[in-house]
Write a structure and sequence with these properties.
- By secondary structure, the protein is α+β, with helices and mostly antiparallel strands.
- It has one domain (about 5-175): Gcn5-related N-acetyltransferase (GNAT) (Aminopeptidase), CATH 3.40.630.30.
- It is about 45% helix and about 20% strand.
- It has helices at about 15-30, 35-40, 50-60, 95-105, 110-120, 125-130, 155-170, 180-190, and strands at about 5-10, 65-70, 80-85, 140-145, 175-180, 195-200, 210-215.
- The protein has a 7-stranded mixed beta sheet, with helices on both faces.
- α3 packs antiparallel against α4.
- The longest helix has 16 residues, at about 155-170.
- It starts with 6 loop residues before the first strand and ends in a 7-residue tail after the last strand.
- The model has no long low-confidence stretch (mean pLDDT about 95).
- The protein binds coenzyme A.
- Coenzyme A binds next to β4, α7 and α8.
- It comes from Phanerochaete sordida.
- It holds the Pfam family Acetyltransf_7.
- GO terms for molecular function: acyltransferase activity, transferring groups other than amino-acyl groups.
Length: about 220
Amino acid sequence: MSSATPVRVRLLEHPTDQEIEEATALAARAFPWDNASIAMTGNNPSLKPHIFGMQFGAARVAGRMYVVSPQDSDKILATGLWFGPGTTMMRTEEQRAAGFNQFLELLDPETRNWWLKEYPEALKIADDAYGKDGMLNNWYANLIATDPEHQGKGYGTLMVQAGMKRAVEDGKFAALATISQELVDWYTHLGFTQIAEAWITGPKTTPIRFWATWLRCDKPKDHV
Ligand SMILES: CC(C)(COP(=O)(O)OP(=O)(O)OC[C@H]1O[C@@H](n2cnc3c(N)ncnc32)[C@H](O)[C@@H]1OP(=O)(O)O)[C@@H](O)C(=O)NCCC(=O)NCCS
């Protein structure tokens, strides 16, 4: 792992529309068109950027948006969204009004119903795994992504560490979900432990299945 260009981690206290657009486009390039994307959009690739845009919108309201940029410019090379104790993503109407509600309007009725009923039901396993209010009272990462052109340079690690460090300072744990064994291995290397897993089935019109797993980190590994 090497980083040719010196970079810095920035916490965007008040992300601009332009920064959110740039980060949304980055996430849409970084995340593959996989079973989860197919399920979440009702197999509509044009809706893929909305999955990320609504998360940045919610983070602007109530979360923390970290980015990696070169020392000499504000270009976004990687990004990480963390939600701290006292809130979780899409918990409030104000967060949902920043993109989620608009996304729902674009979906076919079955996929919309899946987001509102079946998906939240499937996610209850995570609430149980983190313990009562565990997700609410700790630091939770909802989106970590590095521009495909800049992967393998340690930037994703910086985005994970941003939240892990904050969790340690607060005496909290860091938590997140992921959907592949390769990513579980990467997060394990950074200090996370798998605590739950589930197969989630998409909407009735797109009944594709994807694997999801939840992890937590109580103490980052010394080597990262
Ligand atoms: C996951 C992701 C954020 C990683 O970003 P990144 O900037 O490449 O991450 P880093 O450079 O900090 O870490 C990757 C490096 O960690 C090391 N690494 C990866 N897995 C490892 C493991 N199991 N054990 C030890 N080291 C490992 C490797 O050196 C790897 O570099 P390489 O790809 O050149 O071999 C990026 O691949 C991405 O955006 N993926 C698509 C979006 C996504 O899936 N996000 C996570 C959702 S939960």
